[in-house]
Amino acid sequence: MTATRQTARQDMIDVIARISGKDGDHRTAIPGLSIHRHSGDAPANCAAYKPSLAVIVQGAKRVVLGDETLIYGASDYLLTSIDLPVLSQVCKASIEEPYLSFAYQIDTAKIPALLDFLAQGPVSAPASPRGMTVSKITPDLEDAALRLLRLLDRPDDIPALLPLVEQEILYRLVTGPHGHRLRQMATAESQPHQVGRAVAWLKEHYSRPLRIDDLASRVSMSVSSLHHHFKAITAMSPLQYQKQLRLQEARRLMLEESLDAGDAGHQVGYESQSQFSREYARHFGEPPLRDIGRVRRTLVARFAGEAEMLSEG
Can you give the residue ranges of the HTH araC/xylS-type domain (predicted)? Predict the structure, then answer.
């Protein structure tokens, strides 16, 4: 790594460490930009990733998509081009060198205008259409990302300069090694675009019984084509995707709204409590009651540790 890039990386570390202040996931004054800090390895956490650019500046993270596992760390970025339910876990962090990263949501509605500006020809099919990929960050993208973070120190500049920085980030992504994923998602009537419409319907109606032929008809695809392209892009079948949405929402309801397992399972569409418990344990590694209890104990211990550090300070 050149001295210039080392300086850029250290500047990113300094900004995120200073603004985050403490461990956790933090929203910022910039819409769609969040920063993340963790001082130790954490248990796996379910998450719904939206189209976004995620950059790790220190540490490493593991993301499980379907049956696939992606690991990325400093000098890498994660590009997500479609809404995807995943399991994520910080896997390299310490008090001395905490995990530091940021994620910036991509406004896919702005991509078609950028493509018109670039006046590019037809989009060719990528070697892999997967809606999530890890790549090494380029100097140009890193430079634009650093300028995005620096705006947090100059909030008065955000309204005027954010659109310019955002357009450059989109440009670097669209013209980068994996830009075909974004270009295809933004191309009307392309198969990835149709899968995106199917995903949007599943997210809105995840608690309803799923009829594949009806879903295929809604997005103007044959059943076989929907199955093939949906799995190629999301690493899941439509039914598996719906199941992950249901299980993640049920877990949220139990953790944040204190619903019991029966009510949570019923609310997300399960008619059988035993089926819900089996699928929950298969996905999260433990039955609902045990998993929720463990997560709550972890949170209590974390808050107690932070309170003790504050009192000592």
Answer: 196-294
């998509």: which residue's tokens?
A: 65
Three-class secondary structure of residue 220 per DSSP: coil
CATH architecture of 3-185: Sandwich (2.60)
The number of beta carbons lying within 10 Å of the beta carbon of residue 32 is 16
In sequence order, which residues have a C-beta less than 8 Å from that of residue 299 and are 6 or more positions away?
A: none
Distance CA 230, CA 301 (A): 40
Tokens of 145: 């990302």
- pTM for the whole structure: 0.88
Residues 6+ apart with CB under 8 A from 195: 82, 219, 226, 229, 230, 233, 234
pLDDT in tens, 165-214: 999 999 999 998 888 888 888 887 788 999 999 999 999 999 999 999 99
State both tokens at 136. Answer: 């090494």
The β-bridge relationship of strands 24-27 and 33-38 is: antiparallel
For the chain, strand residue ranges (E) read: 24-27, 33-38, 45-49, 52-58, 60-65, 68-73, 76-80, 84-92, 99-105, 132-136
Neighbours of 110 (CB within 10 A): 14
Q: What is the pLDDT of residues 79-89, one digit of tens each?
A: 999 999 999 99
Q: Count other Cβ atoms within 10 Å, centred on residue 19.
A: 16
Q: Where are the domains of the chain?
A: 3-185, 191-296
Q: Which of 310, 301, 313, 307 is nearest to 40 (CA)?
A: 301
CATH 1.10.730.10 fits 191-296, yes or no: no
